[in-house]
Amino acid sequence: MDAKTKNPTRDEVSIESQWDLTGLYASNDLWASDLSALAVEVATYASFAGTLAESARKLKVCLEFDMNFSRRLEKLYTFAHLKNDEDKTNDLYQTNFEKAMMLVHDASKASSFIRSEIMAIPEDMMDAFLNHEELEFYRFHLEQILRYREHTLSEKEEALLAASGEMGRTMRDAFDMLDNADLQLGTIEDENGETVSLTHGNFQSLLQNYDREVRQSAFQTYYKAYESHQYTYSTLLAGSIKKDLFYSRAKNFSSYRAKALFSENISVEVYDNLIDSVHQNLDPLYKYFGLRKRLLKLDALHMYDCSVPLVEGIKWHMPFEQAVEEIRTALKPLGEEYVEQVTRGLTGDRWTDRYENQGKRSGAYSSGCYDSNPFILMNYREDNINSVYTLAHEAGHSMHSLYSRKNQPYLYSDYTIFVAEVASTFNEALLTRHFLSQDIAPDMRIYLICREIDNFRGTLYRQTMFAEFEHQVYKAAEGNEPLTLDSFKKIYKELLELYFGPEVVLDDCLPLECFRIPHFYFSFYVYKYATGISAAYALADRVHSGGEAALNDYLLFLKSGGSKYPIDLLKSAGVDMLSPEPVRTALAKFSNLVDELEQLTSNP
């Protein structure tokens, strides 16, 4: 599918290119039947209210019901959200997703007493419960809950907060619909004079076009669409932040960042160490932009010049099937079992929804539930090397999920977001090793080195900039400073100036970028991409050079799910993220790549 291809409708996409969701539900009618059954069963929660302190047995029975109900609800929700993401304009799928979300919130409200009742159990009684054989399986789960004692309200207050959840997601849902369904990005002319409809999916491909006028036109047209809705976008983002502050204050947290990090038991030092380490290592980034400006022979380097390959004449073309074969070869260090499973998943088992279609959610992700295969949403493009890396990335997520679900009970099968990006980025590191290990022409080596540099730039530097933006805007809101269009743009522009330095001209429209980042509606998530790439490259180096023991440590990490806190899981695998060293090591790797690029492109 090239940039000029008009997006097909969902019905025009081949079955082989679509994910197979029949393992979840064979029909919408079966899904609706389960929805009705669970909607009735949610009332059962009330029978446990007021009983949890009576005995370890009573507490166990309630926890078992909650776990089993949640497992079935997760299956119901997964099917609804995957179908909705296939085509955001399909009314049936949108309606079913809304029904699923209403049930999620009903269940959250009905079960909200559980945590507050557990907190209300006297400490000496709870200590006895934790040592009772009836609750041995639930001990770590209960310990995680009990960390929230000072952040748990009364039963009525918790029920009220839970009931507000559906209202609380309004800003995120509105952003999602505006950005994926209503926003018209416009059209441009390509280098052949043909009209191209801009989409989120082809925007990055167009920024890699060798024709600068095409890149500039795509960039300016894309952001003009955001400019025409900038007040709406800023209002939605401000509303989302205010919603978050309401919940953090209601739960007695000192800040929303503290609340976000508390859930995974992550120290704020991890966040601050990341930003400080990146600030101390911006010079290699500035050097790279200077190289890019020189090699492109430009008087001024703009943002739309920062993605085009530095070697002309290399046209990337890799069909999906070939990408799977390349990924298969790259992942051989992870063992035959891993490789065979990921190959089956990407092809025969149809985990992947491969290509863009009208109304489909932009971007890519891995999803699924305990009782399903992992599923991968892609908007794969044969002309963009990033699509191959994205596929390897999402396959890493999916294999992490598969291993966790196969080796952990439902209660401990979900790994936290802090470690979620490790397995995915690990796969990208192996893919780069594979490409660079081949007998390739000098120009292709430069091309791949640049891609690796840009991967670090996008994942380590860029996500840290996003993390710093989040930290600053939340601090502003918590200091009762107004969140307006101008205040958002001012904060973002200052960060752009810091992170891009003297070599890049910042177009006036660029601060609007802060309004198109979906992750800002999942607050304090983005820093985990940066810590994730740091941990992943440390583990990839360890596995590549450490032999069978290092591989077994890594596979055990994939199998451990959420059975420990994430910092402990990574430490067991061989990486200590409480130390700034993994981030500094990753930044040093970036600097070495820039030096290699300089050497490869220096004049004889």
What would a concise description of this structure say?
With 604 residues, this protein is mainly alpha-helical. It has 24 helices and seven strands. The protein has helices at residues 28-41, 56-86, 91-111, 113-120, 123-130, 139-146, 155-163, 165-168, 170-182, 200-207, 212-227, 230-250, 256-262, 268-279, 283-295, 320-330, 336-346, 385-407, 417-437, 442-478, 485-500, 527-559, 566-573, 581-601, and strands at residues 187-189, 195-197, 301-302, 352-353, 365-367, 375-377, 504-505.
Structural description of this entry:
- The protein is mainly alpha-helical and 604 residues long.
- Helices cover 62% and strands 3% of the residues.
- The chain is built from 24 helices and seven strands.
- Strands 4-6-5 form a three-stranded mixed beta sheet, sandwiched between helices. The chain has a two-stranded antiparallel ribbon with strand order 1-2. It has a two-stranded parallel ribbon with strand order 3-7.
- Helix 1 (28-41) packs parallel to helix 3, helix 3 packs antiparallel against helix 7 (155-163) and helix 16 (320-330) packs antiparallel against helix 17 (336-346).
- The chain is globular, with a radius of gyration of 24 Å.
- The two termini are 39 Å apart.
- The mean pLDDT is 94.
